[in-house]
Write a structure and sequence with these properties.
The protein is of the alpha+beta class and 243 residues long. Helices cover 37% and strands 11% of the residues. The chain has 8 helices and 5 strands, in the order H-H-H-E-E-E-E-H-H-E-H-H-H. Helix 7 packs across helix 8. The chain starts with a helix and ends with a helix. The relative contact order is 0.17.
Length: 243
């Protein structure tokens, strides 16, 4: 084998080792600067970063997906609390990506979507600094843990919405899964998340118009995965964003 061939084989082996090591740990990994964000139809498990716009022929696929949603009247919020969905960002949920990898869910999601991610010294999990291109507003946030609330991890389908649409009758284990499923989680600008609250798409959509179809597709993906209906008004608003 030539010297060039030896170098090529060595580099290929190193890349393969890195991929295997990453899969073995199960930890979320930070994208490099300028990483391509994933559109929701190409990201059905929620393990790729961001929320890229839905374009071209994918808009017709998005409409077909949303049409599969069941509708139901919104129920009562009585009995709801965050604690009904398990401990905040617990690593104990079974059957979702990143679960039981030794890192809190919030840190997994910050690492998934952040750029220039830095960890606390001695930790492979605790994120202390990053840059985030917020999918909801388009702003770039230079974040550090000293300003923790500037980035919040949004539940795309809010937990209180889930409760009112049927999660009140679920097992605690299923509620814990949806609360920690990366498909349902998006690090975003804190003020945008607080403006959204527990609203469905008929009452709130991202300020950045170009990702609104992507947002409602992700909302639909979560609802379909967990068998949740949406209100008739929310389904109509979702369809309108992708037509």
């Amino acid at each position: 084998m030539s010297a060039r061939g030896v170098v090529t084989a060595f580099l290929a082996g190193a890349v393969m080792f890195a991929v295997v090591a990453r899969q073995d740990t199960g930890a979320a990994t930070a994208p490099s600067g300028g990483a391509v964000r994933a559109a929701p139809l190409q990201n059905p498990d929620g393990v790729r970063p961001g929320l890229a716009p839905v374009t071209g022929g994918d808009r017709a696929r998005a409409v077909r997906l949303i049409k599969r949603l069941r509708t139901a009247p919104m129920g009562s919020k009585a009995g709801y609390s965050r604690a009904r969905f398990g401990e905040n960002w617990a690593d104990t949920a079974a059957g979702v990506p990143y679960a039981r990898n030794g890192c809190r869910t919030r840190d997994d999601l910050l690492a998934r979507d952040g750029e220039n991610v830095r960890y606390r010294r001695g930790s492979r999990c605790e994120v202390v600094e990053l840059d985030l291109r917020d999918p909801y507003t388009g702003r770039v946030i230079r974040w550090s843990k000293r300003r923790a609330d500037e980035i919040q991890v949004d539940h795309v389908v809010p937990l209180s919405y889930e409760w009112r649409m049927g999660a009140s009758r679920w097992s605690r284990a299923k509620r814990e899964r949806i609360a920690n499923d990366p498909l349902n989680l998006m690090p975003v600008y804190g003020d945008a998340n607080e403006a959204k609250g527990g609203s469905g798409p008929a009452a709130w959509l991202p300020p950045r118009r170009k990702v609104r179809c992507a947002y409602v597709v992700r909302f639909a993906q979560v609802a379909l995965k967990y068998g949740l209906p949406v209100t008739r008004a929310d389904k109509a608003a979702m369809l309108a964003q992708c037509r």
